[in-house]
Amino acid sequence: MRRKITVVGAGNVGATTAQRIAEKGYADVVLVDIVEGLPQGKALDMLQAGPIVGYDSGVVGTNGYEETAGSDIVVITSGVPRKPGMSRDDLVNTNMGIVKAVTEQVVKYSPDCIIITVTNPLDAMTQLAFKTSGFPKARVIGMAGVLDTARFRAFLAMELGVSVGDISAYVLGGHGDTMVPLTRLTTAGGIPIAQLLSQERIEAIVQRTRKGGEEIVSYLKTGSAFYAPSAAVAQMIDAIVLDKKQILPCAVYLEGEYGINGLFVGVPVKLGVRGIEEIIKIELTPEEQAALHRSADAVRELVQLMHI
Ligand code: APR
């Protein structure tokens, strides 16, 4: 039987994610939004692309949750972006209400699904979905590390003039300015980047990666990134649906791993059909460990704002 994947939020990230999944052909897609007509219209448009692109995936748009029943995976992208003049606390409060209400519906109709969260602030919203759902930690995963790592890899490939496929890297920590690109373990064609680039250049690329989302917002002005974020979600879904056991950096609930307890923070995990099948532990230097803990502290601050 074909799998069923729901995407909540039919905006830029949600609709592009739905399109990418439909094009895989391995799952039917349900697109949900509160705006009347938006998910229906986009879903119908995607369905009609099937004969051209060559997929048979069903794509349905809805403002309710009945159609989502029995989903294997639910991606939550619903939320509002941070607008000028909006504080971080305002953003947390608004998106908290949305993610909580959405998660309750998701759980009601798809009690066995795997939830992938995308709404920002990512790590805090994933913690909220986890607490609200009551799901085991293997089935609530935040998408951030794959995106941050892709940005880092893309910038390094541009700098070195090599294929992005040759760059192997991990970005750990929270999805924000405090993220931790592990430069020591980053390689180009197996060669550590410290042998190929000056410390100064590496640091500049790390900084650009940290501000990767902002750079795009400053160009777009009225929205934020969605091509790379949706590609990141699609890679995680591939790993789950195809049971790839792929090691990807994701926001996961840590219970002592990396010295962090009771918090969602980005670390490498093994993704397969059961969701998070293993948390991979990398031996960190004291500096890297301290940077990861600083990043976790920033996440904890946001989580505390939610009083959950
Ligand atoms: N239920 C369903 N959909 C909702 C709800 C809700 N309660 N509240 C808002 N939405 C929908 C909006 O109607 C909109 O269509 O979520 C969609 C969000 O889409 P965009 O504004 O285009 O935002 P997008 O760029 O897709 O980003 C979504 O992902 O990367 C993060 O920071 C980003 O938090 C943001 C999220």
What do you see in this structure?
The chain is α/β, with parallel strands linked by helices. It has 2 domains: 3-142, NAD(P)-binding Rossmann-like Domain (Rossmann fold), CATH 3.40.50.720; 145-305, Lactate dehydrogenase/glycoside hydrolase, family 4, C-terminal (L-2-Hydroxyisocaproate Dehydrogenase, Chain A, domain 2), CATH 3.90.110.10. 44% of the residues lie in helices and 21% in strands. The strands form 4 sheets. The chain has a 6-stranded parallel beta sheet with strand order 3-2-1-4-5-6, with helices on both faces. α3 (88-109) packs parallel to α4. The chain is globular, with a radius of gyration of 19 Å. It starts with a strand and ends with a helix. The mean pLDDT is 96. Bound molecules: adenosine-5-diphosphoribose.
